[in-house]
Amino acid sequence: MALLRPKSERKNKGLPPYRTIQCPMNGHQISWCMGLCEPIGKNGHCGRLAPHAMVGKTQAALIAYAQSQEVHGISQ
Asked: How far apart are CA 22 and CA 32, in angstroms?
């Protein structure tokens, strides 16, 4: 087996700096939103879009349905 070369070590370079932003809630750089802050509009305190502030089509339909039930005085 003298023809086999030893494997070269791979260096972990981490994430590039444009993919990480300082999170004010965690106190360190993260690559995804942890959903800890109270969003302002659709943005979190770090300035990125906050996925926990977004409402999907199904959630919006459920909210509209619940509000229409309250307006018409129907309770369950």
From this structure: 11
